Automatic annotation (TrEMBL):
Originating species: Planobispora takensis
Domain Glycosyltransferase 2-like: 37-184
Superkingdom of source: Bacteria
Family the UniProt entry places it in: Belongs to the glycosyltransferase 2 family.
SUPFAM superfamilies reported for this sequence: Nucleotide-diphospho-sugar transferases
UniProt-recorded name of the protein: Glycosyltransferase 2-like domain-containing protein
InterPro entries: Glyco_trans_2-like (IPR001173), Glycosyltransferase_2 (IPR050256), Nucleotide-diphossugar_trans (IPR029044)
Length: 275
């Protein structure tokens, strides 16, 4: 299921296609002109990175690893696996803080955020990018969309996610099926509208809400979450659920940020460099 979550006005007029040399082949039947960065926040994930990086497509232009001051060989392993990886050392704490640092370091047109514990499959990135180049502004993975799923959701996390998702849909008029999932992608030009300024696991909720408030065209794509391969998660369902609830209430009282118009040099919203 890939529902359009928000409604929008008429499409802008078509402009000329980018030159053929600007396109990067993704499959035998699809090529894109926008560049793609993948942000991977990681803290003590040396054992998991080989599995994560093995799933990342070779056509990705840039991998930004945000290291949360790991005490293992996370950075060394990342550099061995991908010598051209960009490493950002996190100065604050928390997943939200790490993602904000990673987003600021990206140089590509499209930004994809995935986890470093092996729970998100990099081979799904093509679905996110495909949705963006065919018209979406913000693409969110959903474990509850048809074709999605999870090997890791407990009853408590499932119940909390459904309650919080329903609350956001009620307040903001969205049709989300999965609020608290960390696999998302968006056009870099919308960073100001998303304005990630939180520290913890509530970051996914914050981005989903601000994308809706800014009037971005949002699309869900199915995604399958796997269990963490090595180590223990820093997520605490009750504590982080309360932080998510506070974020929902706080954002309800704040006006949305202005959305930057699409650059005139870019391909049109209906066809942003796909061939």
């Amino acid at each position: 299921m890939s529902p359009d979550i928000t409604k929008h006005s008429a499409k802008p007029p078509l402009r000329s296609m980018p030159p053929i040399e600007r396109f990067t082949p993704l499959t035998p039947h699809m090529a894109i002109s926008p560049t793609v960065s993948v942000v991977v926040p990681a803290m003590n994930e040396a054992e998991n990175l080989p599995h994560v990086f093995a799933t990342l497509p070779q056509w990705i232009d840039e991998i930004v690893l945000v290291d949360g001051n790991s005490v293992d060989d996370t950075v060394a392993v990342a550099k061995r696996l991908r010598p051209n990886v960009r490493v950002v050392t996190q100065t604050g704490k928390g997943k939200g803080d790490a993602l904000a640092a990673g987003f600021a370091a990206c140089t590509s047109d499209i930004i994809v955020m995935i986890d470093a514990d092996g729970s998100t499959d990099g081979r799904e990135i093509i679905q996110f990018v495909g949705a963006l180049v065919t018209g979406a502004d913000f693409v969110k993975g959903s474990r509850y969309a048809t074709g999605g799923g999870s090997d890791d959701l407990t009853f408590t996390r499932t119940f909390g996610n459904k309650v919080l998702t329903g609350l956001v849909n009620k307040i903001y008029g969205t049709q989300y099926t999965d609020l608290c999932y960390g696999y998302n992608a968006f056009w870099a030009r919308h960073l100001d509208a998303l304005n990630v300024d939180c520290a913890g696991f509530e970051v996914e909720t914050l981005m989903n809400i601000r994308a809706a408030k800014a009037g971005l065209k949002i699309q869900e794509v199915p995604s399958h979450e796997r269990c963490r391969i090595h180590g223990e998660s820093n997520l605490h369902a009750v504590r982080d659920g309360i932080r998510v609830l506070k974020t929902i209430i706080k954002e309800w009282r704040v006006k949305p940020a202005a959305v930057l118009p699409e650059p005139q040099t870019a391909a049109p919203a209906a066809d942003q460099g796909a061939a």
